[in-house]
Amino acid sequence: MTKAIIVRSLGGPEVLRIENVELAPPGPGEVRIKQAAIGLNFIDVYFRTGLYKTELPFIPGKEGAGTVTALGDGVTDLAVGDRVAYASAEGAYAAERNVATRHLVKVPDEISLETAAAMMLKGMTAQYLLLQTFPVKPGMTILFHAAAGGVGLIAGQWAKALGATVIGTAGSKEKVELALAHGYDHVIDYSKEDFVARVSELTGGKKCDVVYDSVGKDTFPRSLDCLKMRGTFVSFGNSSGPVDAFNLGLLAQKGSLYATRPTLFQYIATRPELDACANSLFDVVRSNKVRINVNQTYPLADAGRAHTDLETRKTSGASLLIP
Length: 323
Description:
This is NADPH2:quinone reductase. InterPro entries: ADH-like_C, ADH-like_N, ER, GroES-like_sf, NAD(P)-bd_dom_sf, QOR-like, Quin_OxRdtase/zeta-crystal_CS. It is an enzyme of class 1 (oxidoreductase). One of its GO terms (cellular component) is cytosol. The chain is an alpha/beta fold. The chain folds into 2 domains: about 1-120 and about 295-320, Medium-chain alcohol dehydrogenases, catalytic domain (Quinone Oxidoreductase, Chain A, domain 1, Alpha-Beta Complex), CATH 3.90.180; about 140-260, NAD(P)-binding Rossmann-like Domain (Rossmann fold). The protein contains 8 helices and 15 strands. The protein has helices at about 40-50, 115-135, 150-160, 175-180, 195-200, 250-255, 270-285, 305-310; strands spanning about 1-5, 15-20, 30-40, 65-70, 85, 95-100, 105, 140-145, 165-170, 185-190, 210-215, 225-235, 260, 295-300, 320. Strands 3, 4, 5, 6, 7, 14 and 15 form a 7-stranded mixed β-sheet that branches. It has a 6-stranded parallel β-sheet with strand order 10-9-8-11-12-13, with helices on both faces. Strands 1-2 form a two-stranded antiparallel ribbon. The longest helix is centred in the middle third of the chain and has 21 residues, at about 115-135. The radius of gyration is 20 Å and the shape is globular. The two termini are about 15 Å apart.
């Protein structure tokens, strides 16, 4: 038996309930891990509410880190005692769990399991956004919404290390100050300022090469007005609700723009892609160019409170659930 959060009906944070669940031995190609920490992400909210579809009942969560305690048949690439982490295996909200080895990467000795759990999904998201979806080069200007969030704090530091001018948005004085301490050259408080007008002012009217947007409904289509001609709009989340359908002609009207909606899981679909993305993240963290901030921790049983804090924008940086 192990403790896990079970979602038996879709709805608000109150549907996240801790239960005792049977845990079978790891199957072929799987290992059992005792989890040290579990990452909290907005994608967990999307599954809990039904915005993203899955079958009921389910254990939410995609990100965690822990120690291998048992091996299934055919596992040769991991051993009992290995420290591992993952970002793409549904069922993370549990004290112990079985995971297919194709999802797992070994955690370097210099990185704690808590740090690994806080950075795998968010850090690899920053990696593919900045280095693959729209490769950021020295001299470029970027706009990153939700600059004080888990992905935003990593992306600000990483983009600055890549040589970009980094503009962010945040929703309070405290979050503005936090983002400024993590690589951002300028942070716009959207609760007080018009971010479109401020971007134009900060760039002398030249605007941005790319906008990275995980907010969605509240920032679209105005994010398009922050782009220079032939700029790129990257939508990778929708914390305020999904972007409404729009006429593609809008991209032409606003400057022959590009728009894309990538997901991490299609960038780490193969073992070589996962290893390359994770190793890139580990390297930038070990170099101290990117610091990982765990600003909130919650007992696993308080997953509902954690979701409430996340949805009401009371959190900053990374949040962890501790079994």
